[in-house]
Amino acid sequence: MRPTGPYGGGHHDAVIFDLDGTLVDSVRPDFLACDALFAEHGHRLPHELWAREVCGRPEGYPRLFSRLRALCGGGAAPDDVLLRRLEALWEVYMTPDHVRLLPGVPRALERARAAGLRLAVASSSDGRWVRRWLRHHGIGRYFDAVVTGDDVTRRKPDPEAYLTAAAALAADPGRCVAVEDSLTGVAAARAAGMTVVAVPTALTRSLDYGSADRIVPDLSAVEFTGPTTLIP
User: Fold this and answer.
1) Beta bridge partners of 145
2) In what side-by-side order are the strands of the sheet with 118-122?
3) Which of 18, 25, 30, 158 is catalytic?
4) pLDDT, tens digit, 9 for 90 and up, residues 38-58
5) Within this chain, do residues 117 and 224 fall inside the same structural domain, yes or no?
6) Distance between start and end Cα atoms, the chain
7) What is the chain's alpha carbon radius of gyration, rounded to the nearest angstrom?
8) Are residues 34 and 128 in the same domain?
9) Residue 208 designated active-site
10) What pTM did the predictor assign?
11) Which of 20, 35, 181, 213 is flagged as catalytic?
């Protein structure tokens, strides 16, 4: 696969996709759950703050809880209690009605497979969660490998998930394109030595994706043509 235009030269053999926020919209439901938690304490959660401090960040939720306690003058519950309440809110918002396929996903996967590319998922989320949505949306069949947070010891922004996915595809990381929505994911793919395509969500578009090789509005903007070419 030869990326042309803004990608520069070089051949690529595989495309590795993040899941949350890239293939399925679990980003907005997560924000809605966090915002509902703040609302229960009489506050609103600015989406810019959530995008910057929480989205894709393993340490994001404790930081969010600390901010909520500060807003409440220290009156909010400790982390474990707030986490249990947030988990209950996730049950409300993380449903098939909310976690939908993002625009352009099925056609992008079909075009990539038709171009003879190897495909994988590299996610920091738990394996049960990842496979639930791949199965629910009927897209699991497109992938030659699926790497989840259960398969690594260090999650994004560490590159381990991407390196593990490349190894599962028997692909050189330098010959892989990674598709990501979060800054931590972009950092992980960059650290793995991959070409990085960023697809910001509506909630994260205000962030600086300058370290990605290419920024696109959705996956329909990435066109696979012929047997070996990726055209942005």
Assistant:
1) 120
2) 145-147, 118-122, 14-17, 176-180, 195-198, 214-215
3) 18
4) 999 999 999 999 999 999 887
5) yes
6) 13
7) 18
8) no
9) no
10) 0.90
11) 20
Could you report the per-residue pLDDT of 145-155, keeping only the tens digit for each?
999 999 999 99
Q: Give the range of the structural domain holding residue 32, as residue numbers without chain letter.
A: 27-93
- Both 59 and 154 in a single domain? no
- For residues 159 and 183, the answer to whether their CB atoms sit within 8 Å is no
Q: Name the domain count of the chain.
A: 2
For residue 117, the domain's CATH number is: 3.40.50.1000
- Pair (125, 178) in one structural domain: yes
Tracing tokens 């931590």 back to the chain, one arrives at 184
18 is catalytic: yes
